[in-house]
Amino acid sequence: MRYNKISLRDYNSGWEPDRKRSGGGLRWALLGTVSGLALGLFSLTSFDANALKIKDSSTALAPATQATTTPGEDTTETLTKAPQLPQAKAEPQAAPPPPPGSWHEVTVQAGDSLARIFSRQGISPRQLHDIIATGGVAKKLTDLYPGQKLRMRTTPEDGLLELVYEIDALNQLQVLRKGEDYESQLIAKVPERHRVSASGRIDNSLFLAANRAGLPDKITMELANIFGWDIDFALDIRRGDRFTVIYEELYLDGERIGTGDILAAEFVNDDEVHQAVAFTDDRGHTEYYDPKGRSMRKAFLRTPVAFTRISSRFSLGRKHPILNRIRAHKGVDYAAPRGTPVKATGNGKIVFRGRKGGYGNTLIIRHGNRYSTLYAHLSRFARGIKNGRRVRQGQVIAYVGSTGLATGPHLHYEFRVNGVHRNPLTVKLPSAAPLPPKYRKKFKLNTEHLLAQLELAKSRAVALQSD
């Protein structure tokens, strides 16, 4: 093998240490440096090229990565939404023009009728006829009372276009003209109902105690009606009797407009506790029951007049004040001012209406086959009361007077069972039907809540009295 001299000399130089290197060694060093730079430049160029390829590959794979889904997801390709251009602002719509005509408010005066009011407002009788002829709720316009308000929108050409009749705070009647006809509708407002409670102790009378407790008269009367089958408020009330009531107050637009119904009540009479809770069935009918589901309503009221005193009791040996001889008094006399309303104590049918000897003006009502009641010394009969007419419990049937053998205005009341006189104050009255079994569960839930509220109201009243 033949070697280049330069190479041979280079190899030989390594084996001859005593000889000095010539300028050829510098050339080899320069050649190695250049070779290293070239190699480094080549590697850098290759790296940039690979990086560029990877970047291009990632860009190409990006859409595929977005479309990747987990099992169970929708694999439909996701499309990129086009950018939305800003929408132009809608022009504000002009307010609708006011209805034609002008409004007038009229207050009903004593003796007014709708015909008189229309005549004063220049509305034709023909339009009055057309409104009443629509029937239905429009007939309420025939029952106007002084102080009520009517608002009417009219034009000289067309007359009445709209009428609004404020029946009460919660109901108004609207009559609106549609073409040549009129349409009427009843608009009912729904009030807010707030629960309130009140407690009191009787020193003189229920009315005075209720007034001190802040009870409205309507709630006081309702309280007496609820317990009126078990307690005679003319005879049984004792000093120290107590009551607690939970009832509703009605508000409309933040203003109190009246009272609702009693939700629960307790009356302690001569240390005997009576409780009642309201329950409304699926038909919307509300009744009062004791905590065991027994109806508070009995077949008969205990008394036919409210809050009066007894002037003469049931007695078989009473001396008659006018005849001045012993004569059985087979009923109870309730002294009351002339004109005090007399109520039917039970549902029944009028079998006698007229004058009956010493009884004076008298009514007799038959309640089924066993019971009958008699009301005597009446000043007059209520409107519509006549022989054969059916009446309901609590309905006003007549008014207290002093006709017949009477020394002053009072009501003589008799209660008969199978034709035999019984003491109205002590006779055991038949009960009404109890709560139907299908409502028992719902009633129990409602009762527990209301009775708990009653206990809380009583506790608060005791705490206030102790302070």
Textual characterization of the structure:
- With about 475 residues, the chain is an alpha+beta fold.
- It has three domains: about 100-190, Nuclear Transport Factor 2, Chain: A (Roll), CATH 3.10.450.350; about 190-300 and about 435-465, Nuclear Transport Factor 2, Chain: A (Roll); about 310-420, Glucose Permease (Domain IIA) (Distorted Sandwich), CATH 2.70.70.
- It has helices at about 5-15, 25-65, 115-120, 125-135, 205-210, 215-225, 440-465; strands at about 100-105, 150-155, 160-165, 170-180, 180-190, 190-200, 240-250, 255-270, 270-280, 285-290, 310, 330-335, 340-345, 350-355, 360-365, 370-380, 390, 395-400, 410-415, 420.
- Strands 11, 12, 13, 14, 15, 16, 17, 18, 19 and 20 form a ten-stranded antiparallel beta sheet that branches.
- The longest helix has about 45 residues, at about 25-65.
- The termini are far apart.
- The relative contact order is 0.07.
- Residues about 1-20, about 45-80 and about 315-320 have low confidence and may be disordered.
